[in-house]
Amino acid sequence: MNPPRPLVLIVDDNTTNIDLLVSTLKSDYRLGIAKNGEKALEYVKKQRPDIVLLDIMMPGMDGYEVCQSLKADPETTAIPIIFITAMNEVTNKTRGFELGAVDYITKPFQAAEVKARIRMHLSIEEMRLELASQNERLEALVSKKTREIQTVFDASICSMATMVEVRDPYTAGHQLRVSQLACAIAEKLELDPDTIEGIRIAGLLHDVGKIRVPVSILSRAGKLLDAEYEMLKIHPQVGFDILTTIPFPWPVAEIVFQHHERLDGTGYPRGLSENQILLETKILTVADVTEAYSSFRPYRPARGIDMAISELVQHRGTHYDPKVVDVCLELFKTGQFIFDSFDNTIPRSLPDRDKI
Q1: Cα–Cα distance between 249 and 253 in angstroms, integer?
Q2: pTM
Q3: Any bridge partners for residue 84, and if so which?
Q4: Contacts of 137 (CB under 8 A, 6+ apart)
């Protein structure tokens, strides 16, 4: 079935002009007629013509006002408008273009010119609509591919986090809980969403370097020997080495590298201090210490949140950033944050960012 012919609306108060245009166009187009501006607006609202041929000098609402009204309405603004008028001053034409008209034909007009102008602008509009349609399809495809890539990315992060927790089941869930608390602190500090996303990923991976630490050390029930402790301290460097090859849009590798540094320079592995430490790391460090002190470890029972808070207060300003500590304490004091559980369950999928 052939598509309907394009609909052309002729707006003119002069019957002779209307007859000439109808005679010129009737074989190629469906035609609508309006003899004043008010009728033209009513017709456009109901019929949605493909193009409007608009006279300027009309009683009541003139062509400029009709054009302005159509262009102000989001539902009709895209309809091409061609002025057909005896006015040929440059200022008159300029005003028409400024109001949004696409062309200007001066009376007396030639039939061939009118046909050519209409054909050209209908073709341009068809191309515009096709381009818009292609853009919509492209945006949908990009959105779909982005979701697919995000799914693969999340699965990869989850797998990396799980590698550590499979080897160290006593601390399973630690990275997830640290990530949750770090994000809550970052949101309270009103950091931008992109920065918070980087903190989330770094939190989920901050102990990935423990893949190089022997299981006998990770699961040891008693106090570590000095040599064992030194072995454990390599995990930030190993984590950095693993993650630095991944082109994250955030400084994930560096955050992981720094997460055992302290403000006073007593941390490891590089002895960084104060402004040498990223804000993201300062947030992650407080979250890490809070979760670690609260939960069970092979060498001690769970100490609970009160003991974690005591550690933060004792070393506020020396080990841990004061502002970050204050926000963390406020979250727990006001009940705005609690750890989900300490059931040592290894997460099987990466949590939704909105749920962290």
Answers
A1: 11
A2: 0.62
A3: 105
A4: none
